[in-house]
Batch of 4 targets.
Target 1
Amino acid sequence: MEYSMFIKLLVWQSLAAMALCQSAGFDFFYFVQQWPGSYCDTSQGCCNPTSGQPPSDFGIHGLWPNYNSGSYPSNCDSSNPFDPSQIQDLLSQLQTEWPSLTCPSSDGTSFWTHEWNKHGTCSESVLTEHAYFAAALNLKSQAKTLASLTAAGITPNGSFYNLSDVLAAIKQGTGYDAYVQCNSDENGNSQLYQIYICVDTTGQNFIECPVAPNQNCPSSIEFPSF
């Protein structure tokens, strides 16, 4: 009888361990920031948020759960949609640090809704909606990306910089490798658009990326003003 109970206990512990491993549902996050000057300096242009022009700083694009395989989960829980009431105490920070530049002008709610519903719900086993947005804000504060670039003499003034110098400056600030994606301005110049840094599944700590995102930048890139 005791042996049977022991076996049942082992089975239960194994199932619990499996459930815990599966609960995270992902292996790491991409923390993605975008430079507003590059977002706006394209043929499609941009519109300032209804709260006014955001600061000349990198804005948060998202905190995206990913798999080590390179694929990612999305839209994981339609029963837990974005609820603005959950982040009221973060609203002023989000308007500054996570603004929407799409047209027509908006207050950012649609942007945050998209990010939570598509990406945030896939991390809800470890982060509530409030914790998800708070984690992204904290990561931006930790990264200090613009300060790191400026300290290395890389400033948003329309000049061109070596991609390797950009990456080295960001790593100097965080201690970890980052990845840059570019877009093109109206003249076809490649410009610094988005920066990816990897984060562990708690959403708190930067890590080396298990898999690199797609990269499309030449060796010299423009850093436009905003």
Target 2
Amino acid sequence: MRGALRLVRFRGAAGGGPRLGLEEAPGGDLVDLSAAEPDLPRSMREFLEIGPRGLELAQRALQSGQHRVSRGAVRLLAPLGDPQKVICVGLNYHDHCREQAAKVPREPLIFSKFPSAIAGPFDDIVHPQDTSELDWEVELAAVIGKRGRHIEESAALEHVLGYTVANDVSARDWQMRRNGRQWLLGKTFDTFCPLGPAIVTKEAVPDVHNLWIRCSVNGQRMQDSSTQHLIFGVPALVAWVSRFVTLVPGDVLLTGTPAGVGVFRKPPVFLKPGDEVQCEIEELGTICNRVV
């Protein structure tokens, strides 16, 4: 079986273009994959399109013990900066349905973000002037590694490379009351999709449906749940979405958020400049973004 990998993108202390790398351990130092294998593309999407051979080269670089880079000497970027698609799922945790007195959906509720919404794991979230209701949503994101259409649920995980942490930042006024109540604009302002810190391949995640998932704002725990409470699990979502669109390597699938978002608190709580939002998922890591 292929060994577990924690794939990252980063920029070195001297600047320059994005480079591919590997975390040696969660939160640990990096291996510079672009230095170890200079012929590989610098785009994570293009790297994933290579398929198993690219992952074999990454495994070799990790095991070589060479091309190490100190974590503190780099700036981590979103592990995927140019996916073809960012697909999202609404109302996909039982506890999130309960907190808003919503019926459990019979079918997945699918929407999207534009890839331009992606931000790095420690980048700022820009508070738009156009909203007064900025909210957080910690989410498990699946990353597609193998092209497919009309994928059977029983084979769906064969098409998933791994997982990362996402924050589905949302402007609730635009999501719920403006734009004809179409969700897109309220979900896709620039910087509304922090991702990272790494794509953790599925070999490192024994049970993706049994991970704790948390979000804190200014150190106060706001969301604290488990992926056990997903309504539609990752295989069901991959199979469902592939009925409508072809999934390709690098596509990102945000799987929904648990209870504890700001809009359904009494009274509602919204983000303001200066706030710090930390999202973390067991086995996958932590992202932390300041609102500016």
Target 3
Amino acid sequence: MVLAAVGQFCATSNVLANLEACKTIVTRAAAQGAKVVCLPEASDYIASNTEEGPRLVEWRKTNTLLQGLQGSAKEHGVHVSVGIHEKTDDPKRVSNAHVWLYPDADHTQIYRKLHLYDVDIPNGPIIKESNSTVPGTKG
């Protein structure tokens, strides 16, 4: 049987602090025998406002959080599943991606969120994730 761990923390707009929080979760989970560690959506950052997000987002291949977690995955021999924002060709919108990191390779698997959270409740809130996020594609 393989032990999986699910970690939760409150991401901020400080990517390096979020990386340290994620690495701590991975280290603790591995110490308890986990072989898979699942981290939340948007583990790299939660922007303080809509203008901050595009300034914080990075390309996946050079992403600070992913590079740090790849090192932790290798160090502890665990698979890591983590949600990040990913830069797109649209300077005002990002991709909401989930990445699987392997402990023994730089190879990753990636899923980009297809169905965005858009809601318009009559006489209530209007929330449009599609204003800031590019939907993924199938295949």
Target 4
Amino acid sequence: MGVGIILSIIAMVVSAIVETIRRDLANSNTTVVMSAMWLVPQFVLLGLTKTFNAIGQLEFYYSELPSSMSSLATVMFMMSMAVASLVASLLTNIVDSVTGQGGGVSWLSSDIDEGHVDYYYWLLSFLTLLNFVYYLICCRVHRSFSSSESRLSHAVDKERFDGIEGKP
């Protein structure tokens, strides 16, 4: 999943750079000659992001849950996607409201030449970076929890084995 998050950061940075170039060309009072091919790199990166995140998340659920609860892993994955969509929609509404206050032009204006979608992409890059730091913290906590749990189960197994062998 970490690879997917890193790719997501890269995709948002690429999106911000492409949008900055597009906006500068649009505001230079010349004809904008940009192909839709400028969007291909960010869409490829976003596709890879979704792939790495989905596979990593499902693999984590399957490894942590008992096999009798494998259908719950799929449900948890789908629920996380639904929650992520709601959070994205909420974030879009908040950014639009906050940046459009005081009669100013919103970053997400319907006229993309007046708005600053590039700023929104930079914001998403930063939030995704924070998400990656949170992911690393969760990994560290999970690893320490898993290793202490593993040591405990090893001690219990050793105790059982010693009891079978008749050792004190």
